[in-house]
Write a structure and sequence with these properties.
alpha/beta; four-stranded mixed sheet; 29% helix; 19% strand; disordered N terminus
């Protein structure tokens, strides 16, 4: 843009430029800078798409930066084949566009991906793919964000300048891979569920699945379908609820009951029904937490498991339940109760975590401990200095849609008052601190 070239000219004649290091100058020469009139959104998952769509509806342009080559990369690249939405579709649709009427109650992985592609097409959302954000920093002198990126194979460096930054990388940006003593001696395959597609390669083998969340439970069920012999590591207590109660979604029923009854009473109802339908899970080595499932979710974000048939396989003995791992040995695992068993493979269903703190140079909004907003839901969507987050509510796609709507409404107020020409003085002020290369 012309004003960026003008800014470069001002930088050359500014005496403060001599305080910059030669390293900074060299980096600047190889970096293009691009002004973004609207928000920059980091992440092209469902949350980022929802935020961009809400902004588009208000006439506000945005730029979505995505490190992979597709939207919803977690769904497209890191999920197993049999995956379906665990909640009914009405609780998983993005704001402004419902699921097609002919979709089943629990859409398949591919149906959900198709829905997201249609969503992006409907709102004409075109992310910048293969663009990895390496840092995002706010410059208080000019009131702007500087977002540094690297392109495919780190070949091209671009720094985007914007007034608003929306963090949409979500709670599941990076795999959690626990360390176990002796893991290097195992000798067999050890894979995270992000690399697991189906149990076909594990047919007839003894497989240890580490982690008893929804993914771990369903992977065990999938392994059974391929005649593998899975064992499930249950380290902590966990709530297991039926996916449906008398043909009604347990989640949907819970949301309806919460409109009329206190959470603890609804929790008691859910536990009573679960006991009748599923039996006492403690008999199989799976104890329940002291807090009820809804209370635990609201306090810690820990989601109860919705059983889709795994518990029946545990009862029948097709899936064994094991204690926590003490150490890994060659083709075997020792558990904390002293038992040692042989396994051909280990699958880590240990989940994901936020990666925000690896690139966002800001600590007031996000916790350094877990990379989640410090403020609890529903107040974690807005930070300071034009910083926002979407998809960190620990309340699924419903929470993401709520965040997206609030963010768009908040930015709209300033968008109407500001425009690019108003930002020129601030851009000039920043010229000395962040040298420009030719765009």
């Amino acid at each position: 843009m012309d004003f960026l070239k003008e800014l470069e000219g001002k930088r050359v004649h500014d005496p403060l430029i001599h305080f910059q290091s030669k390293t900074d100058m060299a980096a600047a020469k190889s970096t293009r800078r691009i002004w973004v009139p609207g928000p920059v959104i980091v992440g092209a998952g469902p949350s980022g798409l929802a935020a961009a769509a809400c902004l588009k509806e208000k006439g506000i342009p945005s730029l979505i930066l995505e490190r992979t080559n597709c939207i919803a990369s977690l769904w497209q690249l890191k999920t197993y084949d049999r995956l379906r939405l665990h909640l009914p579709k009405q609780f998983c649709e993005l704001i402004l566009m419902p699921f097609p009427a002919d979709f089943p109650t629990y859409p398949t992985k591919q149906q959900f991906v198709n829905y997201l592609n249609d969503y992006a097409e409907r709102f004409d959302l075109k992310p910048a793919f293969n663009t990895t954000v390496v840092s995002a920093k706010y410059d208080s002198r000019c009131g702007l964000w500087f977002v540094k990126t690297l392109g495919l194979k780190n070949e091209e460096a671009i720094e985007y300048v914007c007034q608003w930054l929306i963090v949409a990388t979500g709670e599941n940006a990076q795999e959690v891979v626990p360390e176990f003593e002796g893991v290097r001696d195992f000798g067999g395959p050890i894979v995270h569920t992000s690399s697991y597609k189906s149990g076909e390669r594990f047919g007839g083998k003894k497989v240890l699945v580490v982690g008893c969340g929804n993914s771990g439970m369903e992977v065990c069920l999938d392994l059974c379908d391929y005649n593998a012999k899975p064992s499930l590591v249950v380290k902590n207590s966990v709530h297991i609820l039926p996916q449906e109660i008398l043909g009604i979604s347990t989640f949907g029923l819970s949301m309806w009951l919460l409109k009329w009854f206190p959470m603890r009473l609804v929790d008691r109802f859910l536990l009573l029904v679960s006991r009748v339908m599923l039996g006492d899970t403690a008999r199989f080595g799976i104890s329940r937490p002291h807090r009820g499932p809804l209370e635990l979710k609201s306090v810690s974000g820990k989601t109860p498991v919705l059983d889709v048939g795994t518990l029946a396989k545990i009862r029948s003995g097709h899936i064994k339940v094991c204690k926590a791992i003490k150490q890994v040995k060659h083709q075997s695992v020792e558990f904390i109760d002293g038992k040692v068993e042989c396994f051909d493979a280990i699958i880590l269903a240990t989940g994901y975590r936020s990666n925000v703190m690896s690139w966002l140079k800001e600590t007031s909004m996000f916790s350094e401990k877990d990379g989640l907003p410090r403020k609890a839901f529903p107040n974690g969507w807005k930070g300071e200095s034009g910083l926002y987050s979407v998809g960190f509510t620990q309340r699924g796609l419903l929470g993401a849609s709520l965040d997206a709507k609030r963010i768009a409404e908040d930015i709209e107020h300033r968008w109407k008052a500001d425009n690019a020409t108003h930002l020129m003085p601030r851009l000039v002020t920043c010229a000395c601190a962040s040298p420009l290369a030719e765009p």
